[in-house]
Design goal:
alpha/beta, seven-stranded mixed β-sheet, five-stranded mixed β-sheet, 13 helices, 12 strands, globular
């Protein structure tokens, strides 16, 4: 299923400001020099292009395309391409920076990048989307490259769009270049395990955190906001490991069942119902979808979009553990209240890093010209995620900071040291 996970947003805050607030706290804890601070807080490259596309009705519509490379100090930039109506430069800059920290947290040799096109793919035909992807690719020929910047799917895009991107880039280069993009269909060099990778990383992070909090998975309840690729896989894998998933939601609403929702049935219903949960009978539809976030549960997995946990609802959150499947679901202003309430929050740059980890495996396999088994992919991904969690947890104890700031400290320290060893620019 393509990764399209819209959800209601209340009082949306600037994601770039939220990222910078956390960055500043971690930088202060590390005693970062002014030189390195100024390098890391600014993106290395920002590209904005106009994309004239002939629509099915014969009219030409111009779309805005964005690509931001935050850092390439650790290696080529890595990050998804988002097709959504509300794409804007601050959001893309924040997501690019998050990718830098995410790659550093799980210790893979990538910098951070992100792309976006302001459009509504739900209102576009397959042909219109294909023409838009190919135009965007051509406009970024000097930006993309296996050793420069490697895109991937994000909200509103999926394997189909990555196949078009690879094809257009390959035609321009006169040869097949599989490693220019990840998240491709298996037959084009995609990796086994990639579809469920992000949700699997959320599961590994949740279980590691539950162990620290002494929460028994077989007695725990969980709610998952967002039932696209990440949320549905996280819910399914957590359910397989004993958790009772009492609530799920997507852009059509939230569904609650105190006895537990059968996640496999929910996924089958969604896939047979145009990709949404509207009309699902495995749970009672909640009057306000936002109430899912404030249920009396053990584990909350926000896996939809940014800024769904804000100062306006954070006081009502009752979960003992928050595991962030989405990028930036918690606003910076809500952090302090989460910490005061004693809730452990496994941050996005750690919890959802399973996706970029397996994207890295896909890139490695493409470069080697060799495929790994699903078991090998999952085993290596799980180990990386568990090791990253342990590193962040120990850092949180060392600096006496929440997990979120600890993750930023781990990431910024790695990037800063690499910059210093490289001797600056």
């Amino acid at each position: 299923m393509a990764y399209i996970e819209p959800a209601p947003i209340k009082d949306k805050e600037n994601p770039l400001e939220s990222m910078m607030e956390r960055f500043n706290i971690a930088a202060e804890k590390l005693g970062l020099s002014d030189e390195v601070y100024n390098v890391l807080k600014n993106p290395a490259k920002q590209v904005i292009v106009s994309l004239p596309i002939t629509m099915d009705n014969g009219k030409i519509q111009v779309f805005e395309g964005i690509r931001v490379i935050h850092s390439n100090i650790l290696g080529p930039a890595k990050g998804g391409i988002r097709f959504a109506p509300d794409v804007h430069i601050d959001e893309v800059r924040a997501l690019a920076a998050w990718m830098t920290w995410k790659c550093a947290v799980v210790d893979i040799p990538y910098g951070g990048g992100k792309g976006g096109v302001r459009c509504n793919p739900r209102e576009m035909s397959k042909g219109e989307i294909e023409r838009l992807v190919r135009a965007y690719t051509l406009s970024m020929l000097d930006v993309f490259g296996p050793d420069k910047d490697i895109p991937a799917p994000d909200m509103g895009t999926g394997p189909r769009e990555m196949a078009w991107l690879m094809d257009e880039y390959s035609k321009a280069k006169g040869m097949t270049v599989s490693s220019v993009v990840t998240g491709k269909p298996l037959v084009l060099g995609g990796s086994l395990g990639r579809t469920e990778a992000t949700g699997r990383g959320v599961m590994v992070s949740a279980l590691a955190a539950m162990q620290k909090l002494k929460i028994n998975p077989f007695q725990a309840t969980c709610a998952v906001q967002g039932f696209g690729n990440v949320g549905s896989w996280a819910a399914r894998l957590l359910e397989e490991r004993g958790l009772k998933i009492v609530a799920i939601s997507d852009h059509t609403g939230a569904f609650y069942n105190e006895k537990g929702i059968n996640i496999v049935e929910a996924i089958e219903y969604r896939d047979a119902n145009g990709g949404n949960l509207e009309g699902f009978t495995g749970g009672e539809k909640m009057l306000d979808a936002g109430d899912l976030l404030i249920l009396e549960i053990d584990v909350l997995v926000p896996a939809a979009v940014e800024d769904v946990i804000t100062i306006h609802n954070v006081n009502d959150i009752k979960a003992k553990l928050i595991v962030e499947g989405a990028n930036g679901p918690t606003s910076a202003k809500a952090d302090a209240i989460i910490n005061e309430k004693g809730i452990m929050a496994v941050p996005d740059i750690l919890a959802n890093a399973g996706g970029v980890t397996v994207s890295y495996f896909e890139w490695v396999q493409n470069r080697l010209g060799y495929k790994w088994t699903a078991d090998r992919v999952n085993r290596r991904s799980d180990r990386i995620m568990k090791d990253a969690f342990d590193t962040v947890y120990q850092t949180s104890l060392k600096y006496e900071v929440p997990m979120r700031i600890a993750a930023y400290i781990v990431a910024i320290d790695k990037v800063a040291k690499t910059y210093t060893f490289r001797g600056g620019f």
